[in-house]
Write a structure and sequence with these properties.
Blueprint: E1 3-7, H1 11-23, E2 27-31, H2 34-44, E3 48-51, H3 60-70, E4 78-82, H4 87-95, E5 100-103, H5 108-118
Helix pairs in contact: 2-3
Amino acid sequence: MATILLVEDNQNTADFITRILSSAGHTVCHAKSGLEGARWARASRPDLVLMDFDLPDVNGRSIVLSLRRQASPDTLPIIAVTVQADEESIKLAEGFGCNAFLAKPFLPEDLLKLVDHFLPAPLDG
């Protein structure tokens, strides 16, 4: 399956997301800060990034902008996963280069549906 970079500073949320994605067969690389996430993205070349915007060191939007300078939306899907769910935040996320937006809290099936939308279908046999 896919390698997914999760940039999330809240350990409980990270554990929740990791369990969901791992149970679907994905490998999750968890970065606890924006700078760590940016390093992981450059080093591991994930198939998809889940990005929190409220990070302790660098704003997630800055990391998205940095990643977008290196990879287009077609080659690296980035999904904003944040509690900032107002219309302005959603538009900002899109403007910064996010492909989609998922508001916390969310249901596991909503996360999986969104992730599956951006990942290529596995090849048979």
